[in-house]
Amino acid sequence: MAAFKTLNSLALVYINLKEYNAATFVRGLGFERNVFSYFGITMKSTRYRLDRLLRQHTRKSPRAIRLLLVSKRIVINNQIATDMNQLVTQFCKVSVDGLIIQNDSPVYIVFNKPKGVVCATKDQHHTTVIDLLDEPGKSELHIAGRLDYNTSGLVLLTNNGNWSRRLSSPEHGVTKRYLVTVEQPLTPEYTAAFARGIYFAYENITTLPSVLHITGDFTAELTLTEGRYHQIKRMFGAFQNKVLALHRYAVGNLVMEGSLPPGTGRALSDLELIRIFDNALPGTEAQLQEWVPPLTLALAT
């Protein structure tokens, strides 16, 4: 009953806060993935069994699909398919009798978000990042690491769920760097506290260690490896110090150039897609191929 009351309270928070990334918040509280359904959040799978994919696209029966397979009429990435249970991703090229069933391409966009724009795909009351994005097929994109309504700076969008999860998950150690302006003067006490981690009593968690570099009486650069709900504002709030301005200028090894005007975006280069993980915890070559499927690992050498 206590757990249900907690979830009910969280649901009310979700309903009333428009700029809020509910999925990130739920994860931050330590709930399991199946709790997402309580909030009406769905997480699209990026892997499918071959027979399921073909049933969806061709409306053929399992028996008819088996006959196609035995007749060597199904081709995946230019190779004849041999197993109905084979897993295919959203980016595999699949054809039957020469007719292409699926041939999606991964998309990776860096966007310079202005203040007053919502990091969401849809919003009835505010302009969204997707509204401003000039990109074919933008309705298929999702945001990898959201920013608050009044926060500006670097936002990444993609249709590759594996890549965005790798980018956003704290255990992979991909840094996010911010410029912060606060209301009251900063002292070395802030730097020490941020390095230890700030305790959030409501969730009963302590933030991961972060690096605060004070650049002026009221300004600082902050480096994080996680992204909890309103985390930066709440960390400074532990000192009763209000954040007046917040701008994200880098994710991993990707620094947003000044030539990208606010409200515009561009495609990431192949080299940027690899280098963005340079400061992250190491992964295997197989993992990199999964996170960034169209690239060759030769770029990383």
Keywords:
single chain, 301 residues, alpha+beta, Structural Genomics Hypothetical 15.5 Kd Protein In mrcA-pckA Intergenic Region, Chain A, Pseudouridine synthase, 9-stranded mixed β-sheet, 4-stranded antiparallel β-sheet, 10 helices, 27% helix, disordered N terminus, disordered C terminus
Number of helical regions = 10
Which spans have pLDDT < 50 for at least 5 consecutive residues? 1-45, 282-301
- What kind of sheet is the major sheet? 9 strands, mixed
CATH level 1 name of the largest domain: Alpha Beta
Count of beta strands: 17
| Secondary-structure element pattern, one letter each | HHEHHEEEEEEHEEHEHEEEEHEEEHH
CATH homologous superfamily heading of the largest domain? Pseudouridine synthase
Q: For the CA atoms, what is the radius of gyration?
A: 22 Å
Structural class: alpha+beta
Q: How much helix is in the residues?
A: 25-40%
Beta-strand content bin: 15-25%
How does the overall form come out from the CA principal axes? elongated
CATH architecture of the largest domain: 2-Layer Sandwich
Output the CATH topology of the largest domain: Pseudouridine synthase
The structural domain count equals 3
Tell me the span between the first and last alpha carbons.
54 Å
Describe this structure in words.
The protein has 301 residues and is an alpha+beta fold. It folds into three domains: 38 residues, no CATH class; 56 residues, RNA-binding S4 domain (Structural Genomics Hypothetical 15.5 Kd Protein In mrcA-pckA Intergenic Region, Chain A); 183 residues, Pseudouridine synthase (2-Layer Sandwich). It has ten helices and 17 strands. The strands form four sheets. Strands 7, 8, 9, 10, 13, 14, 15, 16 and 17 form a nine-stranded mixed sheet that branches. It has a four-stranded antiparallel sheet with strand order 3-2-5-6, with helices on one face. β2 and β3 form a beta hairpin. The protein is elongated and about 75 Å long. The N and C termini lie far apart (54 Å). The N terminus and C terminus are likely disordered.
